[in-house]
Write a structure and sequence with these properties.
- It is a single chain.
- With about 425 residues, this protein is of the alpha+beta class.
- Helices cover about 20% and strands about 45% of the residues.
- The chain contains 6 helices and 26 strands.
- It has helices spanning about 15-25, 30-50, 55-75, 75-85, 90-95, 100-105, and strands spanning about 110-115, 120-130, 130-140, 150-155, 160, 165-170, 180-190, 200-205, 210-220, 225-235, 240-250, 255-260, 265-275, 290-295, 300-305, 320-330, 335, 340-345, 355-360, 360-365, 375-380, 385, 390, 395-400, 410-415, 420-425.
- Strands 1-2-3-7-6 form a 5-stranded antiparallel sheet, with no helix packed on it. It has a 5-stranded antiparallel sheet with strand order 10-11-12-15-14, with no helix packed on it.
- Helix 2 runs antiparallel to helix 3 and helix 4 (about 75-85) packs antiparallel against helix 5 (about 90-95).
C-alpha cells in the first residue's frame, strides 16, 4: 500500500494537501525544459500509438511522473539524498531543495497535545538555534475559530523568559474553520541562546475564557550554533555611508545586519527596501508579509530577517539595497508641549503637518507616498519613553505616548520623507 508523506515524515491530512497546493504554486519549475521533454515524449508516442486517446494517456502519465518527482525530491529527504548520488541529478535536486536544507535537518518533532475549555492545542515541533526559535502548532475546537485572536505568547528556557521579538500569524479568515496550523517565531534580542534543552510555551487565546496553555517541552539535540559570514561592504551616497556588516545563517532565519557609519553628518532613519536574492534571482521571503527587522536604522543598526537558507549557498547570494531616508543629526525630532498642546519645533526639511490633539497624542497629516513614522521620546528630565500605541490610515497617523512625560518633549523619527535615491547590488563572495 502506497502512502504520501510530508517532509516531516507524517501522513498528509486534507489540510496538509491544501497547504501543499499553496507551496506548489511557489515552486519554480524549469518550464522550457519540461515542455521540450513532454513534446519529445509526445512525438515518440505518436509514432508508436494511436494519435488520440493513447497520446493523451501518455501525456498525462509523463506530467504525473514529473510532478511526483518534484514532490518526492522536495519533501522526502531520503529520496532526495538518493537521487543526488545519480550522476547529473545533483544540480536538479539542489534546484528544488536548497531553501529547505536547514529546516529538514534540524526540525524536532514534539507532538504534545493539551485540551482546555474546548480548545485543543498541539505543539507539533520546533527548530531552535542560538538566535531564535520556530515552534509549529495546531489549534482545534468544536466551533468556528476563524476570528479567534492570540492575546499573548511567552517562551521560557529553564524557567526564564527569553527576551526578544515575537512573530505569529492571526487567525482572521473569511471562511469558517475549526482547525488551524501556524508558526511562532521568537528572535533573541541580545547575545546567543544558551545550550539548554528545557523550554516552555505559554500562549493565551482570545476566547471567552481567555484560555492559557502552558506546555513544557524538551529538545533532544543541542541548540544549533549560528554561522556568521562577514561582508563589511561600505555604501556611500551624498557623503552618507551604510555598512553591510554581515550575514548570519541559522535554521530559523537568515539575518542581514546593516549599520550606519558614525562619521555621517546625517541621521540615517530608514532604508526603503532591502532584498536578498538567490543565484536564480528569486527573492528570499521575509519572516512576515513585509520587511521585518530587529532594532532601528535610526538607532544606528538594524538586522533584517529572511527565511532560512543552507550555508552552502551563501556565496551565491546577491543583496539589493534601495534608497535611504535621512535628516540632519541636530534636526531629527519634533519638540512638543503636551500640556499646552503645542508643536514647538519640527524639521526644517519638508512640509509635514503635526498637531497635538490632547495630552500624550500626536497626529500627523501626510501625503499618501510620504510616510512619517515616530520613534522614542525623551522628556525635559532626560528620561526615555516608548510609544504606547500607533494607528494609521491612508493619509493620517496617530501616536500615543505616556502621560507622565514632562514637557517639553523631543520625539525622534523612525522614518521621514527626505530621501537619498540609489540602487546597489552586492554579490556576496565576489569582488565589487
Amino acid at each position: 500500500e502506497t502512502a504520501i508523506w510530508t517532509r516531516r515524515g507524517r501522513l498528509m491530512t486534507p489540510l496538509d494537501l491544501e497547504q501543499l497546493n499553496k507551496e506548489l504554486d511557489q515552486i519554480e519549475v524549469p518550464k522550457e525544459q519540461l515542455a521540450k521533454t513532454r513534446h519529445n515524449a509526445f512525438n515518440k508516442v505518436q509514432k508508436e500509438k494511436n494519435r488520440t486517446s493513447t497520446g493523451r494517456y501518455y501525456f498525462v502519465l509523463t506530467a504525473t511522473v514529473v510532478l511526483a518527482f518534484i514532490l518526492s525530491v522536495r519533501f522526502i529527504p531520503p529520496f532526495a539524498d538518493t537521487v543526488k548520488r545519480v550522476p547529473g541529478f545533483a544540480d536538479v535536486v539542489s534546484f528544488f531543495t536548497e531553501q529547505r536544507y536547514d529546516e529538514k535537518q534540524f526540525y524536532e518533532e514534539l507532538n504534545i497535545t493539551r485540551t482546555k475549555n474546548d480548545l485543543t492545542l498541539t505543539v507539533k515541533g520546533a527548530i531552535i538555534d542560538e538566535t531564535g526559535l520556530k515552534i509549529d502548532y495546531s489549534l482545534e475546537a468544536p466551533y468556528d475559530i476563524s476570528n479567534l485572536s492570540i492575546k499573548g505568547v511567552t517562551i521560557l528556557q529553564d524557567g526564564k523568559e527569553i527576551a526578544g521579538a515575537l512573530t505569529y500569524g492571526g487567525m482572521f479568515n473569511e471562511e469558517s474553520i475549526k482547525y488551524i496550523e501556524d508558526t511562532i517565531y521568537k528572535s533573541v534580542d541580545e547575545g546567543n541562546l544558551p545550550n539548554r534543552k528545557n523550554f516552555e510555551l505559554q500562549i493565551t487565546f482570545g476566547d471567552k475564557s481567555e484560555t492559557t496553555f502552558k506546555i513544557p517541552f524538551t529538545i533532544k539535540n543541542d541548540v544549533v550554533k549560528k554561522q556568521v559570514h562577514h561582508i563589511d561592504y561600505i555604501l556611500s551616497y551624498k557623503g552618507q555611508k551604510l555598512i553591510i556588516k554581515d550575514l548570519t545563517v541559522t535554521p530559523t532565519a537568515t539575518r542581514l545586519r546593516i549599520i550606519a557609519d558614525q562619521s555621517n553628518s546625517m541621521q540615517i532613519l530608514n532604508v526603503d527596501d532591502v532584498r536578498v536574492l538567490n543565484k536564480r534571482g528569486k527573492r528570499l521571503n521575509t519572516l512576515e508579509s513585509g520587511l521585518s527587522g530587529i532594532g532601528s536604522m535610526s538607532d544606528g543598526e538594524i538586522i533584517y530577517l529572511f527565511e532560512s537558507i543552507s550555508p552552502k549557498v551563501v556565496n551565491s547570494l546577491t543583496i539589493e539595497i534601495e534608497n535611504m531616508n535621512v535628516l540632519p543629526k541636530d534636526d531629527n525630532y519634533i519638540e512638543v508641549d503636551f500640556k499646552k498642546q503645542q508643536v514647538l519645533r519640527q524639521p526644517a526639511i519638508g512640509q509635514v503637518k503635526f498637531a497635538v490633539k490632547q495630552p500624550g497624542i500626536i497626529k500627523i497629516y501626510e501625503e499618501e507616498e510620504n510616510k512619517v513614522r515616530l520613534s522614542h521620546a525623551i522628556d525635559a528630565n532626560g528620561e526615555h519613553f516608548t510609544m504606547d500605541s500607533m494607528s494609521s490610515s491612508w493619509n493620517e497617523a496617530e501616536y500615543t505616548y505616556p502621560l507622565d512625560m514632562k514637557s517639553p518633549v523631543k520625539i525622534y523619527f523612525y522614518n521621514y520623507p527626505n530621501t537619498i535615491y540609489f540602487k546597489k547590488e552586492i554579490s556576496i563572495g565576489k569582488d565589487q
